[in-house]
Design brief:
The protein is an alpha+beta fold. About 20% of the residues lie in helices and about 45% in strands. It has one domain: hypothetical protein yedk fold, CATH 3.90.1680.
């Protein structure tokens, strides 16, 4: 899963600044009372600087709200399972036509202890996780346009996959993390998301945050 990630302010200042200067960002702040910090520890419903295609199909920066909405719950839907993204009604249109990339520094995960019957029973330590040898990472996501208080705004969800290696001792899911060279192909509507997802990064390092 991924319900928290961190955006280092100085490292991502150029991207954040571009997103903050857009009229859409100003509209989101005024109409939705959304702060436009876009850095630090990002939580569901925060506004984040996200990479997605512009009208010409080129990678551009946009402010997006973290979490799809759904009539069955008041909670934002912040994650989407890679395995079923192309099949489920909520995700399949975005899977084929509206993919995005969320730049960040690392993500957080909470250790889950399991009871003998395999059910989660207790949440343990908080971990900071990122690709080995990297100071940044690129989360794969899906986006769509939703109406919020009369304003058309882009929202996104982070794709998750089965955890691999030692990460499975912390949680059974992890974000889909893209290689930098796959960003353009991922956001292009004519790209092959399944093929790109198979190249996702899996060599992670992690440490307890406290």
């Amino acid at each position: 899963m991924c319900t928290r990630f961190y955006v280092e302010p100085a490292y991502y200042a150029p991207i954040i600044s571009r997103a903050q200067k857009l009229k859409l960002a100003d509209d989101m702040m005024r109409h939705l009372s959304k702060p436009l910090t876009m850095s630090g520890e990002m939580r569901p419903t925060d506004v984040v600087a996200v990479l997605a295609p512009n009208k010409e199909g080129n990678v551009s920066v946009f402010p997006m709200i973290w979490g799809f909405s759904h009539e069955a719950t008041d909670a934002p839907i912040v994650n989407c399972r890679l395995e079923t993204a192309s099949q489920k009604e909520m995700w399949k249109d975005s899977w084929f036509r509206r993919r995005c990339v969320i730049p960040c520094s690392w993500y957080f995960e909470w250790e889950h202890f399991r009871s003998p019957d395999g059910k989660r029973s207790k949440v343990g330590d908080k971990y900071l996780i990122q690709p080995k040898g990297a100071e940044s990472m690129l989360l794969a996501g899906l986006y769509r346009i939703e109406e919020r208080r009369g304003l058309q705004v882009p929202v996104f969800s982070v794709l998750t996959r089965n955890a691999v290696g030692d990460l499975r001792g912390i949680h059974d899911r992890m974000p889909l993390i893209l290689r930098r060279e796959d960003v353009d192909a991922w956001v292009r509507p004519d790209g092959n998301p399944r093929e790109i997802a198979e190249k996702g990064l899996t060599e992670m390092c992690f440490e307890k945050t406290g």
